[in-house]
């Protein structure tokens, strides 16, 4: 008889989570740690990082904070090698960071070329370079790479949801998340023979205190009639990281309450 609960466990595994102090990142770290993994939360918020590490360690979870600036692409290979040297073989790597410029949300009419380039570099290029490096580090015994995508990597935005809310969707976001999804497919195909699985978890809108008109508009368009929460995303990341998903690779796992089917 198969022990499916045992397959979900990550005991003895090392998991790296970028953007580990963000709304979704914190939940991913806790989910992986509760499943038994030694988790390395990567972020640039040094003070908050130490407090997060201390709090979860007090709760009996093996979570470690590392300060790495993912916007400095030329340093990422060395940073990954340092994590490997300090913590051992990386079994799970989660690309979850969300670095962006202050003018990130500018409408296409006001978008500056320098801003576009910087956001593509900080998000899409860092995801690509880190995923590549993680796969190279996993070639000895396999592993799981999980990229965090978005519904807007698979479809265009519905402008009606944003009407009169003061919110907008950056053009770069769609380009980045669409690129992340096909990057995942490429890496899954290339590194599959090494026992490396690469998947994209694609959340819908995650509630984070947004304008209530937007929340209502969003919920009305979604079959489950609510926005996602960070726990919804973390649970699916845990599935993709675990042995329960041993034959799942190159997949785009939608965590959107049905948004993308209607």
Show the helix and strand layout.
Layout: H1 4-8, E1 14-18, H2 23-34, E2 38-43, H3 46-58, E3 63-67, H4 76-87, E4 92-95, H5 113-137, E5 143-148, H6 159-162, H7 171-191, E6 196-203, H8 212-221, H9 230-241, E7 252-255
Parallel strand pairs: 1-2, 1-4, 2-3, 4-5, 5-6, 6-7
Helix pairs in contact: 2-9, 4-5, 5-7
Structure description:
This protein is of the alpha/beta class and 262 residues long. The chain has one domain (4-255): Rossmann fold. It is 44% helix and 15% strand. The protein is built from nine helices and seven strands; from the N terminus they run H-E-H-E-H-E-H-E-H-E-H-H-E-H-H-E. The chain has helices spanning 4-8, 23-34, 46-58, 76-87, 113-137, 159-162, 171-191, 212-221, 230-241, and strands at 14-18, 38-43, 63-67, 92-95, 143-148, 196-203, 252-255. Strands 3-2-1-4-5-6-7 form a seven-stranded parallel β-sheet, sandwiched between helices. The longest helix is centred in the middle third of the chain and has 25 residues, at 113-137. The protein is globular. The mean pLDDT is 96.
